[in-house]
């Protein structure tokens, strides 16, 4: 049985295992085992000698006491070191013979015979290395640094063994490039001590959360910045034994000042020495129970001839003040010692969960959430990211990338090897999808019924419900059609109409996204234009009755987009014919609020605004592309349609604006494409215009809401008085434009007071210094006057 | 659909990665953490491994109980804790330089004594709620008091 | 998956998590998973119940213990959320969306 993807069949061995586990398949190792009643592999998994395990099980198998200082044997080969690295075999019964071999190997250091061939290879590899201390294939800087850090750490005694130190390095306890950022790091602690910063845990860098750099540990097996992946791996296999070399040497835990510099010709010991200034800050009192670092300090001080290292310079520059270890108080030493104990306890078993374990856990979970239909299953997130691209995918991937790097995941930092993992992911995803489909995924929570009741099983996609309702058998019941459930005049019915429309729109949008055939029939039926309902005042189609509800206004543009041209025209005609009955139009007339000082309620105002931004925008766009006859039909529907009262419509902003748009569109076509228009068309337009004019004649002044009026006889002031009145002047302009001179005279005559009132306001504004306001009033007025070849200033009206 | 080709799948994989339990916990592996359990106890130790259910293995862990804001008790023997995910309320990475600061203001008492006091307080709460529950139920109310949540 | 999908868009934003025991913890959302477990960075809490929280750098919170999550309204696209809810409802009703 596999525990975290860990293959117990062979002993963990650094190089070979890497490749082997890369191809480890979860299915192969686990398949079927979970279903067995008795787990025959229990002993194999947990060991037969479980009783011996105390409550504080030692992950290292007791091989490496934390306090045991280590030293480095310069004569030990990398290969030998690798041989002896069979360390983690905590329960012998788990490892069988292999484990025993490993144990015996570690107990007798002189097992060189078994690894001769490797040694030979290695000797060759080491040859150039000694001459040129920088490894050519990989980023030499990084390699060196890692080694330096590692050896320094071991030398200072913080790590019981090189492997642990290497892991610490890998996991970011020793970020090679950012020695100053990680509060956990002994290295940093030492540095801080040197610089007299001990006890000032509040240094800015420390208070910060682990910065990005910290979370991208330089995993030794995977040098990310190295150029060629293949070389990297070879490199890494050389490098790893190198890192672990000292550990094989189970030499007595003595390292004192008298001992000579361990190995002066290799880059590795140099690193030790160069790091020494850092370790030198460790408590030097031999009475403290952390003697390793102290002794180490002595030894390195004795050698004393170590050139400063490049990477060390930055922190030094930042904190130039240095303090000798002797200056530390007893308290500070104790503190440091405690800290080092903590760190070594943490480091001691680091890497128990290795990158492959992490990868494994991730994949298990990813296979649950990765979907082959992200658009539908992850709709909000997908669309939100598109809409808010500033928090877009780049950020997302960088987060993911960070985590990948951090976990030592096989995808981390490298694209090439991603393919293998991705192929496997793909297989797992498709498997997972297949299984889910077989289960009848969307039918609800999975449930198993047993003698004691029902066991419901939740999943990430289908959280377990507290109440599982048995839905089988309900198919026999007669399904009541939705429209019969609610009274047609109820708000619930209106909302259900809107939701039907939304459903159809969503379906069509999905089809459109997938470039598939779309049929707007269902959507058209959902609009229920042919149906009628009775509202309090009149009988209209459900769609007209819901058009004043926010959700319906918001979906208007989306639904309009999917209608075919005939349907669009039909819908437009229905709207124009019933303009008067659209709630938002009706309630938008100032005439309703005589008793409230003509103040239109706030809710209505915001509805009007929404209507203008949604429905009207769509209508205007459509009208601006319609032909003369079509627009004429629309105007006719407004003017002569049985449901409309033009005079009333002209007291509403929406009504007035729509008429303006239609009339000006007609005039525009008439002026630009007059050749294309038949005399009948023009005659018809004349008739309709006359109709429109007659409806308004004599009451033209009423199109000015009293709060926007500047006629002393009518004007009323309220919160809306400062709002824009240009829509009124635009209407008057289009009305004049379409009319004859006689019409224009009537118009001017009827609104004379408004014209002069507006001029007066402009004048007053100018005198009070508000030139902008004055100009605005005049330009609005001139919108209208210019049509007749006139131009107004503050004091008089002239011909253009 | 976007997942059709493998290049998109890679994106998907990368994007989805940070939305896993693993991604949330992985950074704390081999770090000193505190785990707050549903019963109100804190376990403090080194996170060694975990799985997708947030089952956790805490190494060198000690239990700590805070009492009335001025005292605390801590078990002395470090232990391994294998914590079932459902009992976890939260888990936080501790800054080892600062973790002892809050304790300096508190009085440490014997863990056994602390445990006893804490257990007694719990029992009292349970008893009180049991009575309240009965009264509420007799009037047709349902309550949602859980006898194992004291965090 | 709607809530999962929703919370995914809040990554890197500051949120306040209210636990079922009334403790409120503010922090930057760093990760969210399908069980709505959260990972917060730069946390600050309104409680003295857990003194060691001041030494905590980031926090994993199990979703099952969360009562509310307070978010900045400007981070929510309500129209989109409505559509997403509709999709979810349609999907769970077995209604086919899209041609797949």
UniProtKB/TrEMBL annotation, chain A:
<dbReference type="GO" id="GO:0003729">
    <property type="term" value="F:mRNA binding"/>
</dbReference>
<feature type="domain" description="mRNA decay factor PAT1">
    <location>
        <begin position="88"/>
        <end position="791"/>
    </location>
</feature>
<dbReference type="GO" id="GO:0022627">
    <property type="term" value="C:cytosolic small ribosomal subunit"/>
</dbReference>
<keyword id="KW-0963">Cytoplasm</keyword>
<feature type="compositionally biased region" description="Low complexity">
    <location>
        <begin position="265"/>
        <end position="291"/>
    </location>
</feature>
<protein>
    <submittedName>
        <fullName>DNA topoisomerase 2-associated protein PAT1</fullName>
    </submittedName>
</protein>
<dbReference type="GO" id="GO:0000290">
    <property type="term" value="P:deadenylation-dependent decapping of nuclear-transcribed mRNA"/>
</dbReference>
<dbReference type="InterPro" id="IPR019167">
    <property type="entry name" value="PAT1_dom"/>
</dbReference>
<dbReference type="GO" id="GO:0001731">
    <property type="term" value="P:formation of translation preinitiation complex"/>
</dbReference>
<feature type="compositionally biased region" description="Low complexity">
    <location>
        <begin position="193"/>
        <end position="206"/>
    </location>
</feature>
<dbReference type="GO" id="GO:0003682">
    <property type="term" value="F:chromatin binding"/>
</dbReference>
<dbReference type="GO" id="GO:0010494">
    <property type="term" value="C:cytoplasmic stress granule"/>
</dbReference>
<dbReference type="GO" id="GO:0000776">
    <property type="term" value="C:kinetochore"/>
</dbReference>
<dbReference type="GO" id="GO:0005634">
    <property type="term" value="C:nucleus"/>
</dbReference>
<keyword id="KW-0694">RNA-binding</keyword>
From TrEMBL, chain B:
<dbReference type="GO" id="GO:0005634">
    <property type="term" value="C:nucleus"/>
</dbReference>
<comment type="subunit">
    <text>Component of the heptameric LSM1-LSM7 complex that forms a seven-membered ring structure with a donut shape.</text>
</comment>
<dbReference type="Pfam" id="PF01423">
    <property type="entry name" value="LSM"/>
</dbReference>
<keyword id="KW-0963">Cytoplasm</keyword>
<dbReference type="InterPro" id="IPR047575">
    <property type="entry name" value="Sm"/>
</dbReference>
<dbReference type="GO" id="GO:0003729">
    <property type="term" value="F:mRNA binding"/>
</dbReference>
<dbReference type="InterPro" id="IPR044642">
    <property type="entry name" value="PTHR15588"/>
</dbReference>
<comment type="similarity">
    <text>Belongs to the snRNP Sm proteins family.</text>
</comment>
<keyword id="KW-0507">mRNA processing</keyword>
<dbReference type="GO" id="GO:0000932">
    <property type="term" value="C:P-body"/>
</dbReference>
<dbReference type="InterPro" id="IPR034104">
    <property type="entry name" value="Lsm1"/>
</dbReference>
<feature type="domain" description="Sm">
    <location>
        <begin position="20"/>
        <end position="97"/>
    </location>
</feature>
<dbReference type="GO" id="GO:1990726">
    <property type="term" value="C:Lsm1-7-Pat1 complex"/>
</dbReference>
<comment type="function">
    <text>Component of the cytoplasmic LSM1-LSM7 complex which is involved in mRNA degradation.</text>
</comment>
<keyword id="KW-0694">RNA-binding</keyword>
TrEMBL record, chain C:
<dbReference type="GO" id="GO:1990726">
    <property type="term" value="C:Lsm1-7-Pat1 complex"/>
</dbReference>
<dbReference type="GO" id="GO:0000932">
    <property type="term" value="C:P-body"/>
</dbReference>
<dbReference type="GO" id="GO:0005732">
    <property type="term" value="C:sno(s)RNA-containing ribonucleoprotein complex"/>
</dbReference>
<comment type="similarity">
    <text>Belongs to the snRNP Sm proteins family.</text>
</comment>
<dbReference type="GO" id="GO:0008033">
    <property type="term" value="P:tRNA processing"/>
</dbReference>
<dbReference type="GO" id="GO:0005682">
    <property type="term" value="C:U5 snRNP"/>
</dbReference>
<comment type="function">
    <text>Component of LSm protein complexes, which are involved in RNA processing and may function in a chaperone-like manner.</text>
</comment>
<dbReference type="GO" id="GO:0000398">
    <property type="term" value="P:mRNA splicing, via spliceosome"/>
</dbReference>
<dbReference type="GO" id="GO:0006364">
    <property type="term" value="P:rRNA processing"/>
</dbReference>
<dbReference type="GO" id="GO:0005688">
    <property type="term" value="C:U6 snRNP"/>
</dbReference>
<keyword id="KW-0508">mRNA splicing</keyword>
<dbReference type="GO" id="GO:0046540">
    <property type="term" value="C:U4/U6 x U5 tri-snRNP complex"/>
</dbReference>
<dbReference type="GO" id="GO:0071013">
    <property type="term" value="C:catalytic step 2 spliceosome"/>
</dbReference>
<keyword id="KW-0747">Spliceosome</keyword>
<feature type="domain" description="Sm">
    <location>
        <begin position="2"/>
        <end position="75"/>
    </location>
</feature>
């Amino acid at each position: 049985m596999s525990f975290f993807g860990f293959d117990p069949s062979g002993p963990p061995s650094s190089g070979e295992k890497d490749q082997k586990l890369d191809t480890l398949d979860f299915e192969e190792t686990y398949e079927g085992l979970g279903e067995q009643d008795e787990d025959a592999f229990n002993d194999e998994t947990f060991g037969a000698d479980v009783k011996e395990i105390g409550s504080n099980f030692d992950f290292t198998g007791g091989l490496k006491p934390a306090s045991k200082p280590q030293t480095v044997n310069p004569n030990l080969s990398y290969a030998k070191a690798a041989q002896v690295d069979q360390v983690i075999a905590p329960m012998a019964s788990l490892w069988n013979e292999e484990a025993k071999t490993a144990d015996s190997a570690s107990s007798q250091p002189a097992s060189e015979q078994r690894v001769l061939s490797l040694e030979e290879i290695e000797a060759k590899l080491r040859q150039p290395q000694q001459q040129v201390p920088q490894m050519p294939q990989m980023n030499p800087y990084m390699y060196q640094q890692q080694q330096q850090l590692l050896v320094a750490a071991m030398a200072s005694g913080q790590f019981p063994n090189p492997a642990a130190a290497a892991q610490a390095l890998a996991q970011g306890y020793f970020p090679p490039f950012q020695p100053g950022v990680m509060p956990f790091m002994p290295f940093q602690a030492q540095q801080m001590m040197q610089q007299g910063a001990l006890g000032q845990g509040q240094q800015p860098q420390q208070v910060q959360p682990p910065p990005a750099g910290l979370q991208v540990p330089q995993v030794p097996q995977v040098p990310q910045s190295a150029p060629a992946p293949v070389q990297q791996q070879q490199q890494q296999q050389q490098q790893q034994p190198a890192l672990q070399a000292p550990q094989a040497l189970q030499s007595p835990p003595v390292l004192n000042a008298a001992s000579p510099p361990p190995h002066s010709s290799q880059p590795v010991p140099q690193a030790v020495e160069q790091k020494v200034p850092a370790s030198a800050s460790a408590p030097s009192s031999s009475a403290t129970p952390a003697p390793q670092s102290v002794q180490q300090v002595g030894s390195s001080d004795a050698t004393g001839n170590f050139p400063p290292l490049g990477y060390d310079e930055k922190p030094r520059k930042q904190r130039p003040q240095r303090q000798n270890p002797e200056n530390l108080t007893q308290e500070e030493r104790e503190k440091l010692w405690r800290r080092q104990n903590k760190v070594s306890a943490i480091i001691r078993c680091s890497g128990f969960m290795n990158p492959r374990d992490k990868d494994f856990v991730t994949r298990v979970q990813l296979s649950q959430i990765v979907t082959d239909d992200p658009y539908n299953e992850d709709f909000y997130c997908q669309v939100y990211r598109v809409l808010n691209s500033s928090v877009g995918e780049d950020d997302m991937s960088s987060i993911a990338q960070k985590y990948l790097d951090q976990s030592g995941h096989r995808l981390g930092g490298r694209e090439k090897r991603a393919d293998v993992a991705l192929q496997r992911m793909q297989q797992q995803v498709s498997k997972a999808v297949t299984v889910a489909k077989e289960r009848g995924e969307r039918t609800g929570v999975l449930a198993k019924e047993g003698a004691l009741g029902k066991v419901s099983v939740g999943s990430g996609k289908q959280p377990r419900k507290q109440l599982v309702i048995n839905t089988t058998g309900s198919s026999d019941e007669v399904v009541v059609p939705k429209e019969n459930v609610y009274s047609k005049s109820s708000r619930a019915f209106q909302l259900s109409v809107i939701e039907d429309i939304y459903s159809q729109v969503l379906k069509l949008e999905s089809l459109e996204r997938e470039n598939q055939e779309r049929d707007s029939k269902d959507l058209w039926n959902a609009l229920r234009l042919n149906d009628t309902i009775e509202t309090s005042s009149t009988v209209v189609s459900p769609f007209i009755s819901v058009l004043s509800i926010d959700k319906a206004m918001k979906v208007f543009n989306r639904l309009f987009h999917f209608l075919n041209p005939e349907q669009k025209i039909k819908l437009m005609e229905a709207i124009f014919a019933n303009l008067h009955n659209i709630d938002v139009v009706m309630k938008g007339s100032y005439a309703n609020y005589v008793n409230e000082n003509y103040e239109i309620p706030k809710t209505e105002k915001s509805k009007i605004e929404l209507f203008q931004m949604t429905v009207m925008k769509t209508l205007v766009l459509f009208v601006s592309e319609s032909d003369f006859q079509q627009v004429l039909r629309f105007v006719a529907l407004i003017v002569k349609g049985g449901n409309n009262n033009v005079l009333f419509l002209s007291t509403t902003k929406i009504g007035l604006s729509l008429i303006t748009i239609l009339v000006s569109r007609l005039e525009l076509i008439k002026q630009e494409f007059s050749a294309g228009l038949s005399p009948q068309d023009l005659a018809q337009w004349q008739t309709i215009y006359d109709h429109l004019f007659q409806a308004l004649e004599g009451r033209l002044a009423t199109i000015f809401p009293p709060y926007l009026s500047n006629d002393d006889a009518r004007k009323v002031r309220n919160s809306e008085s400062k709002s824009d009145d240009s829509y009124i002047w635009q209407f008057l302009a289009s009305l004049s434009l379409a009319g004859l001179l006689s019409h224009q005279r009537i118009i001017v005559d009827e609104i004379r007071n408004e014209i002069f009132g507006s001029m007066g306001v402009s004048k007053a504004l100018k005198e009070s210094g508000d030139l902008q306001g004055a100009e605005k009033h005049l330009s609005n007025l001139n919108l209208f006057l210019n049509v007749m070849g006139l131009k107004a200033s503050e004091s008089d009206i002239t011909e253009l | 659909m976007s997942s059709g080709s493998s290049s998109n799948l890679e994106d998907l994989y990368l994007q989805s990665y940070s939305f896993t339990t693993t991604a949330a916990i992985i950074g704390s592996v081999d770090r000193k953490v505190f785990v707050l359990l549903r019963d109100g106890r804190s376990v403090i130790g080194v996170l060694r491994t975990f799985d997708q259910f947030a089952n956790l293995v805490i190494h060198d862990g000690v239990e700590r109980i805070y009492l009335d804001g001025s005292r605390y008790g801590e078990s002395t023997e470090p232990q391994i804790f294998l914590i079932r995910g459902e009992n976890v309320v939260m888990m936080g990475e501790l800054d080892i330089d600062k973790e002892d600061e809050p304790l300096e203001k508190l009085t440490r008492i014997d863990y056994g004594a602390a445990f006893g006091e804490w257990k007694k307080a719990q029992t009292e709460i349970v008893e009180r709620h049991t009575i309240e529950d009965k009264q509420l139920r007799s009037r047709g109310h349902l309550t949602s008091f859980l006898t194992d949540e004291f965090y | 998956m709607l809530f999962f999908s929703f919370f995914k868009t809040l990554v890197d934003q500051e949120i306040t998590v209210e636990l079922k025991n009334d403790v409120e913890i503010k922090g930057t959302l760093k990760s969210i998973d399908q069980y709505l477990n959260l990972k917060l960075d730069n946390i600050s809490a309104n409680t003295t119940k857990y003194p060691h929280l001041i030494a905590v750098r980031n926090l994993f919170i199990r979703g099952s213990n969360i009562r509310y999550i307070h978010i900045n309204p400007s981070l929510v696209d309500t129209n989109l959320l409505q559509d997403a809810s509709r999709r979810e409802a349609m999907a769970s009703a077995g209604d086919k969306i899209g041609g797949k």
